[in-house]
């Protein structure tokens, strides 16, 4: 497949390959794309639920010959009775509650349980908590909110600590839970027992307990492993409030690693850089030293390493120059990465955000080249892919020539991403800056396809651009057709949709577009809506409407306009009345 893909270009009109199975389910916008992409995983989860709760329907095999390695995995315990072997099997199958019950029965019966088995039970409890085993889900919103708090003033730190504590407490570590209870009744404990508890407490939001457990480990003269130190370093921002105190505590853990002869690995340095993200100026002064230490130990950075490094330097209002990110891209664009850290997946989206904040399109092009290098694109799932290209397109609209913007737009949508409402707004502003307003009808068709035909902010911007200046008649007719669609969107609501509310400006824009296209009756119907829904037209609308009436030599329309202005109580009614008397030949009755 890779060889075939090399010889064929990507179809810019086609959606993502995962949606090709059923054309009826081709998404129209990013919301549909996310829904359809998640539906497959939802189906897998439903299948797992059925297999787990109704295993009796899946215990028959009819294959001849029977090949065990090709058969479905056995999910029901086969060992009966209360024994250590049964406990091992339940632990292997991740039956949390049943494993705890079996362990309690063995302890009550006075049956000794080996240290290895008890540690396996602790591993299960500390990984899953007290609940049943589920797929581990990353809570990116929590991470992002924590990072947003990271570099604020230190005076607010105690309050933030309380907020973080409440967030972490909901993660699942209860007081005297099963893991703590099993740990306390263990007749003997080794380093593995303490390390498991420390990592479980950090994972489930009890960093203070994890630190106390680490002190107990030291008092028992045990040594922690590298994974435990990684967890403790990652928990440092939750243990200390001030930036300098955080760095000092991280150094304490690093010194303990050296004293205990524990060799740091990539995740150790990534955890340290992640902590430095929340150390303000201390992080900026120390992060480059961490990178040099990695080089000295011949540890190759992962994408998460670069992501943390950029986050240390490029955050806040006052952004530095593009020197650091340029050096990072020098390395990234020449490598094809493999996943080594759970945070690797966020690197490209955060990097393109930095390019947008720096307003540097050249860096964005380099990042795009790096993303397409080897298998680096695999780090972008459907959501991140849409976010990446959305930010890239916004930067294009801001910094590139309109021809380049339109070229990328045609190639990217919908094969790479579905434009958001902000992307469409950026495109409209780019067309306005380049005086390329003849493309507006085409953009309107895309807006309808993407489901943005009822977005008030987009409709107002589109109508404003179309009605601002006079254009050749052919373009005015196309604009009037767009105005007709927009009027229909305001007046015809779907079964589950509330009707759009007219604003005075949007009504005026539609009236002008109809008038300039020669659709006088439609224009008058729109003008009557001002009085019906209590909206006030602008002086520009009234003046231009009177000018159109003069060009068509229609004094009746001018008089009707003056009556409308008087009915609405407009200050310009007297001026319109004077213009009508001066510019039109009126009969005695009309006067």
UniProtKB/TrEMBL annotation:
Q: Under which name does UniProt file this protein? A: Small ribosomal subunit protein mS39
The protein's organism comes out as Indicator maculatus (spotted honeyguide)
* Superkingdom assignment: Eukaryota
**One Pfam family matching this protein:** PPR_3
Q: Can you list the GO cellular component terms from the UniProt entry? A: mitochondrion; ribonucleoprotein complex; ribosome
Return the PROSITE patterns for the record. Answer: PPR (PS51375)
InterPro entries cross-referenced by the UniProt entry: PPR_rpt, PTCD3, Rib_mS39_PPR, TPR-like_helical_dom_sf
Listed GO molecular functions? ribosomal small subunit binding; rRNA binding
Q: Which NCBIfam families match?
A: PPR
* This protein's record includes keyword S-adenosyl-L-methionine: no
- Where's it found, cell-wise? Mitochondrion
The record's similarity note reads:
Belongs to the mitochondrion-specific ribosomal protein mS39 family.
């Amino acid at each position: 497949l890779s060889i075939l893909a090399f010889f064929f270009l990507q179809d810019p009109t086609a959606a993502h390959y995962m949606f090709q199975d059923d054309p009826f389910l081709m998404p129209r916008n990013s919301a549909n794309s996310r829904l359809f992409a998640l539906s497959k995983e939802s189906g897998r989860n439903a299948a797992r639920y059925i297999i787990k709760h109704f295993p009796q329907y899946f215990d028959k095999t009819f294959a001849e010959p029977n090949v065990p390695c090709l058969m479905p995995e056995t999910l029901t315990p086969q060992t009966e009775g209360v024994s250590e072997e049964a406990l091992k099997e339940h632990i292997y199958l991740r039956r949390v509650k049943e494993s705890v019950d079996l362990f309690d029965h063995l302890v009550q019966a006075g049956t000794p349980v080996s240290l290895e088995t008890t540690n396996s039970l602790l591993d299960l409890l500390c990984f899953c908590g007290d609940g049943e085993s589920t797929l581990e889900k990353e809570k990116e919103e929590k991470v992002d909110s924590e990072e947003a708090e990271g570099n604020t003033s230190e005076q607010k730190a105690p309050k933030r600590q309380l907020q973080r504590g409440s967030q972490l407490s909901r993660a699942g570590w209860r007081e005297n839970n099963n893991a703590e209870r099993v740990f306390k009744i263990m007749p003997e404990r080794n380093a593995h027992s303490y390390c498991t508890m420390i990592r479980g407490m950090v994972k489930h939001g009890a960093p203070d307990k994890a630190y106390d457990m680490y002190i107990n480990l030291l008092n028992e003269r045990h040594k922690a492993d590298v994974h435990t130190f990684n967890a403790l370093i990652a928990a440092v921002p939750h243990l200390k409030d001030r930036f300098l105190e955080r760095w000092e505590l991280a150094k304490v853990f690093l010194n303990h690693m050296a004293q205990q002869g524990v060799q740091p690995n990539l995740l150790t340095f990534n955890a340290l850089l992640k902590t430095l993200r929340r150390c303000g100026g201390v992080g900026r002064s120390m992060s480059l030293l961490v990178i040099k230490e990695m080089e000295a130990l011949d540890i190759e950075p992962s994408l998460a390493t670069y992501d943390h490094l950029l986050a240390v330097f490029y955050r806040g209002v006052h952004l530095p120059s593009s020197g650091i990110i340029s050096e990072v891209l020098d390395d990234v664009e020449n490598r094809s990465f493999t996943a080594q850290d759970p945070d690797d997946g966020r690197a490209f989206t955060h990097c393109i955000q930095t390019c947008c904040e720096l307003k540097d399109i050249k860096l964005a092009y380099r990042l795009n080249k790096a993303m397409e290098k080897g298998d680096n694109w695999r780090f972008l799932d459907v959501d991140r892919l849409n976010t990446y290209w959305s930010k890239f397109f916004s930067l294009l609209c801001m910094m590139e020539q309109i021809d380049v913007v339109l070229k990328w737009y045609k190639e990217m949508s919908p094969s790479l991403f579905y434009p958001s409402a902000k992307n469409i707004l950026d495109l409209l502003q780019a067309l306005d800056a380049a005086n390329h307003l003849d493309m507006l009808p085409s953009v309107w068709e895309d807006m309808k396809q993407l489901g943005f035909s009822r977005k008030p902010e987009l409709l107002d911007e589109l109508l404003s651009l179309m009605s601002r200046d006079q254009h050749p008649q052919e373009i005015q007719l196309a604009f009037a057709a767009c105005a007709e669609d927009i009027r229909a969107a305001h007046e015809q609501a779907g079964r589950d949709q509330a009707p759009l509310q007219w604003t005075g400006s949007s009504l005026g824009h539609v009236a002008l577009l109809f008038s300039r296209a020669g659709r006088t009756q439609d224009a008058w119907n729109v003008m009557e809506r001002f009085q019906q829904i209590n909206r006030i037209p602008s002086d520009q609308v009234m003046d231009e409407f009177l000018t159109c009436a003069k060009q068509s030599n229609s004094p009746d329309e001018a008089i009707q306009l003056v009556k409308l202005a008087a009915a609405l109580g407009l200050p310009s009614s007297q001026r319109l009345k004077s213009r009508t008397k001066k510019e039109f030949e009126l009969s005695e009755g009309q006067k």
